Each structure stands twice: as C-alpha cells, then as structure tokens.
Amino acid sequence: MANVFAKKPIVIERGKGALVWDINGKEYVDCTSSYGVALLGHSHPKIVKAVCEQANRLISCHAGFYNEKRTEFLQKLTSITPKGLDKAFLSNSGAESVECAIKLARKFSSKPEIIAVMGAFHGKTMGALSATWDKRYREPFQPLVPEIKHVPPDNLDKAREAITDRTAAFLIEPIRGEGGIRVPPDGYLQGLRELCNEKKILLIFDEVQTGFGRTGRLFASQHWGVVPDIMCLAKSLAGGLPLGVTVAKDDIMSKFKVGDHSTTYSGSPLVCAAASSAIDVLLEEHLVDRAATLGTYFKTKLSGLQNKHKAVKEVRGLGLMLGIEVRFDVLHTVLKTAERGVLILDAGRNVLRFLPPLVIEKEQIDKAVSVVDCVLEEEENERASSSPTN
Ligand SMILES: Cc1ncc(COP(=O)(O)O)c(C=O)c1O
C-alpha cells in the first residue's frame, strides 16, 4: 500500500459499538470512529444484517438502471435533509461529494470562482484539494484547479470583499474538523447565507464530518438554522461502507445533464441497503439526541482537564465532535493514549480530536478522559523536567 498514511503500530481485528480489539486481544475505546465513519458503532447488527441480505440479492447495479434499494435510500435521505435539498448525486467519498458540488456550482452559475476559507479541509482529489487550505497537502501538486481562493473564516467583511462577478459559490464546513474543531461565532453562517443571497451566489456546506447527527443535530447547519443550496455528505452515511452524497435544490441539480457527471459505483444496491438501514438506526435509537446529551457530558469532563492542566488551552466542539487544543505537538500524545487503550485523533499540530461513535457509553467516556488526564500529566512532567530551568 502507498506510504501515505501515518501508521500507528496497532493491527485492529474486530469492533463492536465503541470498542475495537487488536490481534492480541487488547481492547481499545475508539474515540476516532475510523475518522468519523463508525458513527453508529462498529458492526452494528442492523447494518450487518442489511449488508448480508443485500449481498445475497444484488451487489452492483449501475445507476443507468433503476434499483429499489437505491430508491428506498434516496426517499429516506431526502426525508431528513433540510427543506428543499431533495436532489442527490451519489458517489463514494467525501472528496467526491465536494468535487460534484464544485462542478455543479460552476455549471449552475456559468461562473468559475469558488471561495473557501483558510483552515478548511475538503479532501485531497484535485478539486477538493484546491479548496483545502493546508499548504503541506497543496504545494506538491500545483498547479491546482484555478479560481478557487481562500478568505479568513468567521469574517463577513472579508467574505464580502472576496466576492466578484466571477464568483459561483462560497464553500465552507459549518464546523471545521481537520482545521482543529472550530465552531463559528453565532451569526456568522446566518450572515454568510444573507450575503450569498444578496450577491446571488451559491452557499455550499461541507457536512462530510459534521453531518448525520455527529454534532447533536442531524446537520450542523441546523444549530444556526441555515439552509445551504448544496450540501456534501459522506463518512458515516452508510454505516461504515463508502458513500458520498451531494444534495442540492432541484433547480440547481437539474442543471446537470446526462453525462455531465458520473461514477461507476454511483448508488450501488449494497451501499444503499447499508445507508437505508443506517438512517433507520440513527432515528430509531435516537442517536442525534444522544450525541447532544453525551456530548455535553464529555465536554464538561474535558473542560475539567483544562482547569487541571496548564498545557490545555481550550476545549471546543459540539455534540460528539470535540477537541482539546494544547500547547505542544500532539502526535506522540495520541500514541500514548493508544498504548493505554484509548484511540483519539489529532487535528492539526496541537489539537486532540474526539469523534467517538454516538453509541459510546458514559463509562467509556470516563475511561477516555482519565487516560487523557494521565497522558497530559506525563507530557507536562516530561516538559518540566527537560526545561532549561531544571
Ligand atoms: C469536512 C471534510 N470534507 C471532505 C473530506 C474528505 O473526505 P474523504 O476522505 O472521504 O474523501 C473530509 C475528510 O476528513 C472532511 O472532514
């Protein structure tokens, strides 16, 4: 396999709920959900059943033919998406859902320019990468897609200044994930919506990480009551199977004509069966409310660490999308917590990120917090003993 992933020295063999086990039988509380994918928990029995049944019936069916599982999923999906967003293109990943949104915005408006924000992460295919901010990801692959530019986040004046008569759309994550779990100030997304309306440009929300209940609302944009024109979804949508979805208002999606966009795997029955079942699980098990309640519990506990450890600068996030910003590089910290049986993610250089499955139990949260507490203490002691004043 290409050497593009920062590997951890763990071979994961199986998972159940918020727990995974390695090949030696060691148990871990998984606060990564495989980067937000295992939102319903690992190997949820209803997803397993849906996948097995569908695998026995029909695995692939090109979108050039109709398929009932695909229709069933699309009906359920558009019954939960924000009002008006009821036409979907199905792909296989987050980056693809963003690629589709960029192409759609250009086709709809007949204009080329896309505005994104500094600190954004939208994926690593060429279009999505052009909207991603981090220069480590971008620079080796220049030239990127032209006319995609960045403005400072949370600043409506800068957004207004950047819009020209060539602008097709403003693309933004409602809460920046890879960029360090950054929640916008109240009023910003509403202001952006008004600005896009005034300037007649499209507003695209990338809810690949925040969508599907992660933040304690079905979609993070609902915290602020803002409906975009196009929304990108992926990660957890199909209970762990690869699925990207770009949803848009009918008049926008209808600008795509036959042949304008496609992917061979679009809407495979297997993935649609999993995704249809995933929506059932999310609603039947009231997981969105659970994310809100447990998110408050988790965040309160993490905030307790801020009072205890000088190294903690800030605790941020909504629902079960949480981050702790610390005063040092966290790459080693995530390895140390893994050694103690808790998997967490980094976000940028100095943010510890928690994206646990929404089915995580309180005791598992307690364990995660107590391990992070110990590791922070260790990190602080190590730094104190190696400081030149000692
Ligand atoms: C907000 C956001 N958009 C897009 C992507 C890209 O998704 P994928 O890795 O499935 O291509 C990610 C992945 O982390 C993401 O967090």
Description:
The chain has 390 residues and is of the alpha/beta class. The protein is 39% helix and 18% strand. The chain has helices spanning 33-36, 45-57, 68-80, 94-109, 126-131, 135-138, 156-162, 188-199, 250-253, 269-284, 287-308, 331-339, 362-386; strands spanning 12-16, 19-22, 27-30, 85-91, 113-117, 148-151, 167-172, 202-206, 230-233, 244-249, 312-318, 321-326, 342-343, 345-347, 351-354. Strand 7, helix 8 (188-199) and strand 8 (202-206) form a beta-alpha-beta unit. Helix 2 (45-57) packs antiparallel against helix 10, helix 3 packs parallel to helix 10 (269-284) and helix 11 (287-308) packs parallel to helix 13. Bound molecules: pyridoxal-5'-phosphate. Pyridoxal-5'-phosphate binds at residues 35, 93-95, 98, 121-123, 173, 177-178, 206, 208-209, 234.
- Residue ranges: pLDDT <50 for 5 or more in a row? none
What structural class is derived from the secondary structure elements?
alpha/beta
Largest sheet: 7 strands, mixed
Q: Report how far the terminal alpha carbons are from each other.
A: 45 Å
Q: Which oligomerization state do the chains in this entry correspond to?
A: single chain
Bound molecules: pyridoxal-5'-phosphate
